[in-house]
Design a protein that fits this description.
Helix content is about 60%, strand content about 10%. The protein is an alpha/beta fold. A six-stranded mixed beta sheet has the order 6-9-10-3-11-12, with helices on both faces. Strands 2-1-4-5 form a four-stranded antiparallel beta sheet, covered by helices on one side. Strands 7-8 form a two-stranded antiparallel sheet. The radius of gyration is 35 Å and the shape is elongated. The structure holds adenosine-5'-triphosphate. One of its GO terms (molecular function) is ABC-type oligopeptide transporter activity.
Length: about 575
Amino acid sequence: MQELKLIMKMTLKERKDVLLSILFGFLAGVTAVALFASSGYLISKAALTPPIYTLMIIVAMVKMLGISSALSRYGERYFSHRGTFSMLRNLRVYVYEKIEPLSTTILQKYRSGDILARIVGDVESLQHFFLRVFYPPIVLMTVFIATITFTMVFSIPIAMVILIGMIIVVIIVPGLFYLYQRRIASNVRSYRGQLSSEVTEYLYGFTDLKIYGQAESKKDNILDKVNLYEQANQQANNQQAFRESLLTFVSFIVSVAVLGLAGYFVSIGNLEGILLAMLFMISLTVFEDTSNMALFPAYLEETKQSANRLEEVWNVNEETSERKKPFELESNLAPIITLENVTKRYPSTPRPVAQNISLHFEAGSKIAIVGASGSGKSTVLQLILGMIQPTDGLIRWNKDSIAYLEEETLWKHANVSLQSNHFFYGTIRENLHLANSEATDDELREALDNVNLHQIRLDDLLQEQGSNLSGGEKQRLALARLFIRSAAIWALDEPTSSLDAVTEKHIWDKIDQYSEKSTVIVVTHRLTRLQKMDEIIVMDHGKVVEKGTYHNLMQHNGYFKRMKDLENEKLNL
Ligand SMILES: Nc1ncnc2c1ncn2[C@@H]1O[C@H](COP(=O)(O)OP(=O)(O)OP(=O)(O)O)[C@@H](O)[C@H]1O
């Protein structure tokens, strides 16, 4: 029951609504039983043609009970749903707060569609906990206890039959259903996650799938997942319907037993005949709501599985969610950055993608990281920014290890341009404001000028993923974000790879101008403009194979010199 801890905590936060739901549920249950009991009594009494005022009192009672029952039922529904929605709100905030700091780690482990299915579908499944699992059995038991106590006034054996019926219908049969439910372990949720992942990938990669003629086969794949999901759903629904019918049937048998026993007691003179209809009506009514108990096992199991699937997401790396301290820079001075024997391994790749790397960057230095594709350049940049965690070793900004610093406060001091940048549906202005929401229109226009995007207006609409811009325009728009906020570190991963030489030079001049006092780390596979750098780090197969100034490296006649010669040869062809 460990899985229920989270949802219990969320539910008990809404204590007031929980108590009111139980109170009104109990009132609705007992008034319904009393209503039908008095109706049964009224019918029998009327048949004996008593004085009219006797009947008037019972009729008034029936009317009053009818109104109270309806009002109590309304109260129960109102408070239970209000409690459920408040609990869902708290749960959504809790889930967001849990996963947000772990977003980079989580996205490496789960497909985005699966994450979406978990944080939307599984969270919503948890709403059934309160409505179907937590309070209905409590209400049902309390109504049964009140009814049995009332029935004992008239006939103890009949009260005992109702008690036995209650034990069968509320405890034994749902308990057996629950044991069966655990054994068959429904796959509905995992199929829902798989379907969501497939559909997300299909939509993201639609153009490529079309170009390579794979759209149809991918669609068939999705349809297979739809079928699996629907079959699992259908199976779960059929089982649900069967259980409800079975429980209703058992309840009916108990009511018939009450009728038979009461009839027998009347025939041997142990019970007044006028009470026969009343006791039968009591039995019918009190068992009416027991069909809800058929839903209990499935919803209990669903709650446990959904809670498990959610907790799995943030338990990926519990130690990273420990409280971290903020990072502040004295007078915004660029920090000294140090890497001490840093190694990075991914579970999916046996060899380390960065191995035993030790580097030291002085405040305000200009660094280039170069090397062949896949040599680990971007990995080092992401490690420095705290976007991924090292498997071994230490990374410091000034004296602090970044493992104990809040990522947000690190990133506040960094101007970052990654290989792929995201654009949101909206205006150019909105997309630029992402970097600095306080930038004025003049500052935004200046930023666009700096990247040679003079023709673009701030009110122009950007489509999803910036699909109405060219590759180079997208890269320039991403770079424009750098010019509207000051930062002590500039971390640029192949920032001008899609640009022509003239635009590239213009933008680099601007970057040099704006980042004069900052530490600049540029990842690049092009070996141009490197003479200006304070240090060049050369990487190969996850290792730093050379480092030094351009001049030193060219004299050294090693890996860098060979790369530079090859590049020159290519340019001269
Ligand atoms: N999330 C990941 N999981 C597993 N392996 C990864 C992951 N990200 C990167 N790698 C591997 O790490 C290695 C280094 O990747 P990295 O992106 O740092 O190279 P790079 O030098 O920047 O390459 P490029 O110039 O092509 O961008 C690659 O072999 C890549 O396959």
